[in-house]
Design brief:
The protein is an alpha/beta fold and 253 residues long. Helices cover 46% and strands 17% of the residues. The two termini are 21 Å apart. The chain has helices spanning 2-10, 29-35, 57-69, 84-96, 117-124, 140-160, 175-194, 210-222, 240-252, and strands at 25-27, 40-42, 74-80, 99-106, 128-133, 165-167, 201-206, 227-232.
Amino acid sequence: YIVDNAKIFLKKIPRLSLGFYPTHLQKLETLSNETGINIFLKREDLSGSNLFGGNKMRKLEYLMADAQNKGCKYVFTFGATQSNHAMQTAAACRKCGLIPVLFLVNLVDTDEGAPKANLLLDKIFDAEIHIVSVQPNENVMEAMQRTTAIAASYQNQLEDAGHKCYIIPGGGASPLGSVGFYSGYIELCEQLNSLGCTADYLFHATGSSGTLAGLAAARAMIAPQMQLVSVAVDNPGDDYAEKAAALANETLA
């Protein structure tokens, strides 16, 4: 009943079908037997339109719908040169008839003449790619802020020419993007219910905090007994939890 109640809100929010859902909930039988702990793996790695890029398509289903509804032509987003999110955004844009514009910080030296991995896929999707190098004595945050300013200037040029642009933060970490993992948490609870079990802990990786915010928002509504354990992929900073909580509250709103 509680899960069904939480799903009511989702029906009001436009969403495109871009990924493969529900993702499989797989029990790791051998590891569970060895540890004496029931361990399940939610196969978010199989959710996108290809086998690369991780879990970002959940967020993009809502973000792409919003971009289309607002009549946008270009979609801007941000990340490092091998960003999973940027590549999945490019894939989603091409499915939706939108033009992807990627602003990527070159945290690791990249040979643009011989692109590999996600950057190669970005080019295959014919994304418009802007690579920004980190300057001497500049930290990653400063490089990202400078990249955002460069993107804003380009956005103004396009909009002055009559082209509407849609901006997606790095990792899709916005209130609307996080709705994707509000939905994902509900999906997980339904799968656990169908197996007649509950989970004590949910482990996940966190970077931009968009996934964390969506999970926390849904947890607050339907399953507070399941503890989130968020493993940071980089140095999150002292105010990370506060920012994630704020984003979760914006997602609920």
